[in-house]
Amino acid sequence: MSEQWIFLDGKLVTKEDAVVSVYDHGFLYGDGVFEGIRSYNGNIFRLNEHLTRLYESAKSVMIDIPYTKEEMTQVLIETLRKNNLKDAYIRLVVSRGVGDLGLDPANCRKPSVIVIAEPLRIFPKEMYESGIEIVTASTRRNRSDVLSPMVKSLNYLNNILVKIEANLAGAHEALMLNDQGYVAEGSADNIFLVKDQKLYTPPGHIGALVGVTRNVIIEVAREKGYEVLESVFTLHDVYTADEVFLTGTAAEVIAAVKIDGRVVGDGKPGPVTNDLLESFRKITTTDGVKVYDEALHVS
Ligand code: PMP
Question: What is the ipTM of this complex?
Answer without folding.
Answer: 0.99
